[in-house]
Every structure is written in structure tokens, then in C-alpha cells.
Amino acid sequence: ILYSYFRSSCSWRVRIALALKGISYDLVPVNLVKDGGQQFSAEFKALNPMQQVPALKIDGITLSQSLAIIHYLEETRPNPRLLPQDPKKRAQVRMIADHIVSGIQPLQNLSILKQMGDKKSEWAQNCIASGFQALEQILQHTAGHYCVGDEVSMADLCLAPQVANAERFKVDMGPYPTITRINKALLELEAFKVSHPSRQPDTPTELRA
Fold first, then answer.
1. What is the pLDDT of residues 95-121, one digit of tens each?
2. Percent of the chain topping pLDDT 90
3. 83 vs 33, which has greater pLDDT?
4. Does 47 reside within a domain?
5. For residue 175, is it within any domain?
6. CA-to-CA distance for 159 and 136, rounded, in angstroms?
7. Residue 58's beta-bridge partner residues?
8. Pair 19, 190: CB distance under 8 Å
9. Tell me, what's the pLDDT at 112?
10. pTM value?
């Protein structure tokens, strides 16, 4: 059972992983805006004390934090692999994933933006642009068809949702040709299509693909 919100980039990472590995699941929507935020309910807090999505019930345990979930899926259901066998490439994948998951996404998370008031769009744009400037440089050294070489990896699962956030906040993507190229290739893959925010059970009608 996946507890998810259609627009949550962290949830989208996990939906991509589940789709790539062919793992079927039931989706329970948790609306982060409605009713003051359904993640703050006592029921959901018991499931994930951090009151964030995603959360995944699997194999008799409940996991939160997207990368912890993806690592668990990788270790228990290794095909297709999301971490390269080569240690150097594996380290590069983790580096890029951490760059996005720690260095960009939390700074423009809903809880932070609420505190920014009228400046939330400007704040999000600046945080994403700063992170993308560094990421573009890194990818120029690591990328093949995707973030690291020619295999889809955990890094790519983090990249596509972050680009979607950038587009939502109207970040100028002109300075980031490598990021743009990789993202375009990823969005052509079926696992990225079926897991896309525009195609979820809880996607509002006006935002559906």
C-alpha cells in the first residue's frame, strides 16, 4: 500500500521505482492541502510520525523516506537494478540523488513555502536554480543517455520529479541543457508516464493528462 500525493515529488520517485520493478500496489491518496493537510491526521501520524508522504506498507513493515523505500525495493527486488554494479558509478548515482533529495527538494517543500508567504515563488525559483547550476555541471561529467551512463538509476528517479517542480515554479530551464535532455528522455519511458502526477487517482480533473 502506497500513501501518496499526486504532486509530491518524493512520492513520484517511489511510484517510478514500483513501476520499473513491476510491483503492483494499492494507492491511498493523502491530500497535503485539503482539510488543512491530511498528513496531519492522527491516523497518518501513527503511520509516519514525520507526517510526510510517501509511506509504503510492504512485507509486513511500514517505510517512509523515499530513498530508504527505493533502497529496500532494490535490495529485495533487484531487477531491473537501479544502482550500477560499478562502485564509482554507484557512488555517482547516490551523489546526484542526494544532491536533489537533500540539497534542492527540501528547500522548496510545502512546509517551507508556507512560511515564505508572498515570496514563496521567488524563494522556490532561487533554491532550484542554485541547485540546478551545480547539478548541470555534475551531469556534464556523468551523463550518458541518463544521469549516469545509459542505464536508468536512482538518480533519474530523483531528477524527473525535481524538473517537474522547476517547471511548476516557472524556473527558466535554458541554462540547463543536460538536465533538460535527460528529463525529456526519461518522460518517454513507460514507468515515468504511468507514475506521472498528471495520471494519478487523486489528480484533479483540470491537471489530468
1. 999 999 999 986 767 777 777 778 878
2. 82
3. 83
4. yes
5. yes
6. 11
7. 61
8. yes
9. 75
10. 0.94
